Amino acid sequence: MRSRAPSVPPTPPAVATSTPRAWWREAVFYQVYPRSFADADGDGEGDLRGVVERMPYLASLGIDALWLCPFYPSPQVDGGYDVADHCDVDPRFGTLADADALVAAAHDAGIRVTIDLVPNHCSSEHAWFQAAVVAGRGSAQRALFHFVDGRGPGGDEPPTNWRSVFGGPSWTRVQEPDGSPGQWYFHLFAPEQPDFNWGNPAVLAEFERILRFWLDRGIDGFRIDVADGLVKDTTWPDTADGSPVILKDARSPVHDVYRALRAVLDSYGGDRVAVVETGAPDDVVALFLRPDEMHLAFNFRFLKAPWRSADIREAVRSSLAANAIVGAPTTWVTDNHDNTRSVTRYATDARLEGDYVPETRPAAGSATDLALGVRRARAAALLLLALPGAAFIYAGQELGLPNVDDLPDDVLQDPVFIRTGGRVRGRDGCRVPFPWSGERPPFGFSPAGTATWLPVPSAWRSLTAEAQDADRSSMLSLYRRALALRRVAREDGTDLVVDVNIGEPARPLPAGAVLLASTDEPLHGLLPTDTAVVVATTP
Ligand code: NOJ
Asked: Does ligand 1 lie within 6 Å of residue 356's CB atom?
């Protein structure tokens, strides 16, 4: 596969609405999972001050923007995606002043800041939900959520047979204020994550307020969690396999929500951006990227493609084609906090399976070869950064971290593990704290001797940022080099070619090529199986 590196002029000055050459169209976003990035206060969990302290490292990578996963007050039932207050910072991560300091430090370093917006649900400890439970049947407070009477004698059966994404039913029953068994509320995810009723205009008004709260603090945009999930079929039909019925087609009111949120973003200068999370097919994803809706969407088709040229080629072709119809750039992503890390995924040719998120975990018992996974992940890195559009890097991807699949059961925290009775191990293995430096765990993530929220493997000694920093052949050096070349191509309009060999026999390098980066060496004029190069072609 060959791919021409993007070449667009430098970022234009801020304007009130998105410009054709807006920064986000070609941006490289770096995803920080705050709990796992850097622990400044020494409590074994990462925090916002930790991110500020590591800003020089982030600047040295050459990224354009950060995406911070949720840091809001939360009982942490689902890693912070159970938000109790959308306009504050959880004390475990710091304070609002720390958030402001982070934005200021990032902007000083020339890095934009985007944050997670979680509009589908909140925590069962959110003030609105607590009030709804107490207010009782038919109240305005309950109308902010989906409270529905049960079926059968005494309303003892849930309103539908729908299953939750994390396993188990998607309905939980409350006790009415008089102590009697009461209504059921809907939750697409854990029972501690009640879904908002987006059919109620008060919910939109609240999210417009939340958007403004953060935009006023200088945030450059949002990553929108479960963006396509907001509108359910509230005739509540049973389904053959228990899947919830979510309305996301072109006529769904969910698109009116995004038109309204877009108007808020556009009322601020600086090309603020919104990135939608949706696992829908490419043509449905594109609906959310129409010019008056959101800007970017994660390309999960690309993430889930196994390391086979036909699959990767088709993922690239199909997502580019679908987005071209609405004039939106495509994004490229191989790793995030919900999926088995790519080094481990690419380490097997076996069919990929799993429950959350499906298809991303190597089948149990399949042969894995981590050296092969690293080799392929290096080639994938050059491909990721060469394809036209925006790219996402998940913290630790640039170090080539593997998934940690042997965490002891008693440290696992993902509700997936708990709600499937341990049948599915869940996502903790891709959330292990970042190894910064030193000889033993926690490798500078926390002060020496601290027990971190998930243990860091001692085998990561050779993978720390410090260990890779000066090693020209390391994954970190490859990422830095690729990001620097991408920037050159973007700013100077230099034409670069990335040639990637995905599982094919070795073949000659492009004729007349000047080699600028390579995932393997020496090359002897050939591009071996599972390698990639960046070259300048002589005219
Ligand atoms: C997607 C998030 O990325 C994931 O971590 C979370 O569990 C679900 N949405 C529910 O909010």
From this structure: no
pLDDT range class, residue 8, cuts 50, 70, 90: very low
Catalytic center residues: 225, 277
276: preceding bond cis by omega (within 30 degrees):
no
Phi-psi map region of 253: left, alpha, beta (phi>0 left; psi -120 to 50 alpha): alpha
Q: What are the CA-CA distances from residue 92 to residues 8, 76, 121, 409, 526 (Å)?
A: 41, 10, 21, 24, 51
pLDDT of 481-504, one tens digit each?
999 999 999 998 888 999 999 999
Secondary structure class of 124 (helix, strand, coil): coil
Q: Is 251 exposed, middle or buried (0-12, 13-18, 19+ CB in 10 A)?
A: exposed
Contact 504, 529 (CB under 8 A): yes
Q: Which of 226, 228, 276, 394 to mutate to test the pocket of ligand 1 (most atoms within 8 A of CB)?
A: 226
Q: Among all chains, which residue has been given the structure tokens 């002589």?
A: 538
- pTM score: 0.95
460 and 441 in contact (C-beta within 8 Å)? yes
| Strand 171-175 relative to strand 147-148, pairing | unpaired
DSSP string of 284-303, one letter each residue: HHHHTTSTTS-SEE--HHHH
491 versus 379: the higher-pLDDT residue is: 379
Q: Which helix (H) or strand (E) holds 160?
A: none
Distance CA 240, CA 238 (A): 7
Q: How far apart are CA 4 and CA 495, in angstroms?
A: 7
CB of 23 closer than 6 angstroms to any ligand 1 atom: no
- Identify the residue whose C-alpha is closest to ligand 1 atom 2: 225
Phi, psi (5° rounding) for residue 298? Answer: -65, 140
Strands 273-276, 221-224: parallel, antiparallel or unpaired by DSSP? parallel
pLDDT at 15 over 50: no
Indicate if ligand 1 lies below 6 Å from the C-beta of 78: yes
Residue nearest to atom 4 of ligand 1 (CA): 338
Q: Is 168 exposed, middle or buried (0-12, 13-18, 19+ CB in 10 A)?
A: middle
Nearest 10 degrees: Cα torsion 386, 390, 394, 399: 20
Which of 20, 16, 25 has the alpha carbon at shortest distance from 330?
Answer: 25
Summarised one tens digit per residue, pLDDT across range 331-357 is: 999 999 999 999 999 998 876 665 555
Tell whether ligand 1 has an atom less than 6 A from the beta carbon of residue 81.
Answer: yes
User: Is residue 216 classed exposed, middle or buried when 0-12, 13-18 and 19+ CB atoms within 10 A define those classes?
Assistant: exposed
Q: Please report the domains of the chain, with CATH numbers, ordered by start residue.
A: 23-120+199-469 (3.20.20.80), 127-186 (3.90.400.10)
- Report whether 390 contacts 27 (CB < 8 A): yes
What's the gap in Å between 466 CA and the centre of ligand 1? Answer: 31
CA 178 from chain center: how many Å?
43
- Ligand 1 atom, smallest distance to 81 CA: 11
Ligand 1 contact via 90 beta carbon (within 6 Å): no
